[in-house]
Amino acid sequence: MLPTKQYGDKMNRPMGDQNSIAIKVERVSKSFPGVRALKELDFEVTRGEVHALCGENGAGKSTLMKIIVREYIEEEGNIFIEGQNAKDLGIRGVQKLGLSLIHQDLNLIPTLTVAQNICLGREPVTRFRTIDWKAMRLKAAEFLAEVASEIDVEERVEDLSISEQQLVAIARSLVTSPGILILDEPTARLDHKASDQFFAFLERAKQKGLTVVYISHRLEEIYRICDRVTVLRDGRKIITSRINDLPQTELVKHMLGRE
Ligand code: ADP
Ligand code: MG
Questions:
Q1: Of the ligands numbered here, which is closest to the C-alpha atom of 186?
Q2: Dist. CA 170 → ligand 2 center (Å)
Q3: pLDDT in tens, 209-221
Q4: Ligand 1 mutation pick, 25, 30, 61, 63, max ligand atoms within 8 A of CB
Q5: Does residue 156 sit in helix, strand or coil?
Q6: With a 6 A CB cut-off, is 62 part of the ligand 1 pocket?
Q7: pLDDT per position as a tens digit, 21-61
Q8: Rounded distance, CA 87 to CA 134, Å?
């Protein structure tokens, strides 16, 4: 069970007019040397929806998500997170608004334990201001339980399977009590059992009203769990549609730009 405390607190913020919009991206462009990764791109995520982001490798999906969490800065365009202009927000500011990104490249520290990775930067302390190891293990285990994982929190991350490492990264993203969770190709690394655990987690998160942006190539899963889908191709938005209004063959056609 997802404890309510984790997902409730970021979701009752007064919003003014833009009540139902969690993320709004307007005409955003971003270049890297030799590549225009995003071209005047619009993208919108409604609160409480599970929104799939699809596109071939290099389409710009990860770049868009990194801009939303302020790891990259756009060259032009506007981004609003929970109604606030992202130009005024840094990485921490976006986190405080309840946004959490699970990177495609997990960003775990291999030589640290599972508990240390999950609690990194947010270690519980004793009243003497030293790290409270016991509380840290308990906290880590609590977040791992969210993804229904039986991983030992005292294991070092480098000793885990890739699939387990992915689950640890997901557990770690929950530490900030996100109201908006961005998952960049989480299932690419998961084995069969871990995939099932992950989808059960996603179903529970959806039921709790969490807003999710889900980047994946697995169309079957997208059709199972997502409300809407946006397709990117060559840094441009091709379409946003309710998933039920877009047959799978059409979706693939949009991704590839051909039959
Ligand atoms: P996707 O996640 O859809 O596969 P990316 O957003 O990772 O696509 O990449 C979009 C384009 O931007 C690609 O051409 C990629 O090579 C380029 N790119 C992404 N990140 C960088 C970077 N840090 N430096 C240079 N080029 C990058
Ligand atoms: Mg990517």
A1: 2
A2: 16
A3: 999 999 999 999 8
A4: 63
A5: strand
A6: yes
A7: 999 999 999 999 999 999 999 999 999 999 999 999 999 99
A8: 39
